[in-house]
Amino acid sequence: MMDSTETNRRRKKITGFHATMMFIAFFGVIMTVNFLMAGLAIGTFGGTVVDNSYVASQKYNDWLAEGRNQEAYGWNIAKPVRVDDRLEILALAAEGRPLASATVTAIAEHPVGRTDAFNLTFEEIEPGKYQSREPLPAGRWKLKI
Description:
Blueprint: H1 4-10, H2 16-44, H3 53-73, E1 76-77, E2 81-83, E3 86-92, E4 105-109, E5 118-126, E6 129-132, E7 142-144
Antiparallel strand pairs: 1-3, 2-3, 3-6, 4-5, 4-7, 5-6
Keywords: Membrane, Transmembrane, Transmembrane helix
InterPro entries: FixH, FixH_proteobacterial
Protein name: Type cbb3 cytochrome oxidase biogenesis protein CcoH
């Protein structure tokens, strides 16, 4: 049978060193998770919807009117498709026939603003099908056609 003094000798004491290591380990885990989450948030941030919400709110009705004017034509522009480093757009008139001999331009903007916006011009490769003359760099882009 053991007496209390022998039991006390076997029990490890938490010293200043142990407390310091526990403190560093605890906050090390917290900081690691925080840096990981911040890195993921920055890496996946797609940018702002508008740069200035007040100005956008003042122009909102004008944008709606422009949209209604475009809808009145009955044109349908399919989502651009990347072919190699170029974009292809399919444009259809109101009756569903190809929209031929149109002048098609677009402005490509990076959603986070990492690069300056640039213009794309399109040439007709077959009736209603247009391909950009300029290459579009890889990545996510906002297009204003």
